[in-house]
Amino acid sequence: MALSGTSKSFVLWKETPLPMYIDLYMFNWTNPEKTLKEGAKPHFEEIGPYVFTEEHTKVNIVWNKNGTVSFKQVRKWNFVPHLSVGNLYDKITNINVVAMTVGAMIKKIIPKNELPIVDAILKHEEGTMYVTKTVGELLFDGYDDKFLSLMQKLKPFVKIDLPFDRFGWFVNRNGSADYDGVFNMDTGTDDLFRLGKLYAWNFQSETNFFSGSCSKVKGTSGELWPPNIADHDTIEVFAGDICSSATLVREQTTEKFGIEGTTYIGNEKMFDNGTVYPENKCYCLRNGSDQCQPSGTRDLSSCRYGAPAFVSFPHFYLADPSYRELVSGMNPSEKQHQFTATLAKDVGIPLEVNARLQINIYVEPIQGLLFYDSLPSAMLPQLWFNQRASITEDLASQLSPVFLFKQLGQPLFFTICGIGVFLLLLGVILLISEKRCNRQKQPLLLTEDME
């Protein structure tokens, strides 16, 4: 069934009637002083999960004459204490992400002859390489950091205006209609087998954050699929949080509550950057393949204010062993850390989704800046999450195949799907609070009325 303002599927697409969940696991750095002063290997312990419900609502909907729909999305999260192992006041220690972002910018922009002046300013401000904050501060509340005010003093040397005044992975995201951006998607009106296909994100068919095919807006947003999608060998999901698409591959045929489905997984190619699979080299942002990170992480710095942020599977599952060799406390497991999505055959309705991803910050000494001299060269894990949803046995038993396929069709996806949230990333990934939240608005389209 094609999507329209009068279709039965519209209400279920516009607002998810059932909650999705996101389980967040924080990494606590247990030996920062020994690492920075004695060169000890950084050790991390996983703390969590901290569980939140997640709801999606489409807003500013515009139906276009070319068979597409443009829209924004509001996401809301609510903490669920009884499903969590702790509370939002638990203290977590990890690397100072703001300090690492500032360092990366300085390294890239400031001439070497001006570095001694900048280094003197850094020492005078007495900023810290690591922070201890509550889970609430690190996630939704955010916190102030000396390095943000420090940037004002560095303006004569660093021509950068950081677009945020507080740091937090989800700051300013809860209930925001602007954060996720503007999507343009096929409604399936002219061709049902193009249903859900994305054509543009923020009015562009390419993100410009990567090169070549890696920059293209392709796949679906994860919340609408054509009816034959489960017959494909691969499926693609575009995630604004990582400014790119991710490809899942068919793994096996399975069954859930009597409904046959196809399970897709994220494999080792998903976060390769050309070091193993040459066709992925456009995901490497470094000059020359010899400077690319080992396979298993994707560089997000180009779309995250220059922050040295990387996405991977949890605990560096399927990543090059070197990542786990440089830190301790990682225990990758296929059962616990694999990214999976099971879609019903013929119609593509998600039966079960476990979208598991990890956010990391790359740190290294910066030549000419003694302030950063004690840092190891390593990828430090910050947090990982599982965005999960599953059709219930009760729901499956109540829905006959005819009703399920003809009445609900694709839209049931929206009631149970976690792939659409695919990476929140985070902000989750970097995300930081933007002090210029009221960015210049553009019309979604010129000729149509909004819902």
TrEMBL record:
It comes from the Eukaryota. The chain crosses the membrane at residues 412-432. It is found in: Cell membrane. InterPro entries: CD36_fam. Keywords: Cell membrane, Glycoprotein, Membrane, Transmembrane, Transmembrane helix. GO terms for cellular component: plasma membrane. PANTHER family: FI02050P-RELATED (PTHR11923:SF114), SCAVENGER RECEPTOR CLASS B TYPE-1 SR-B1 (PTHR11923). Belongs to the CD36 family. This is Uncharacterized protein. It comes from Ranatra chinensis.
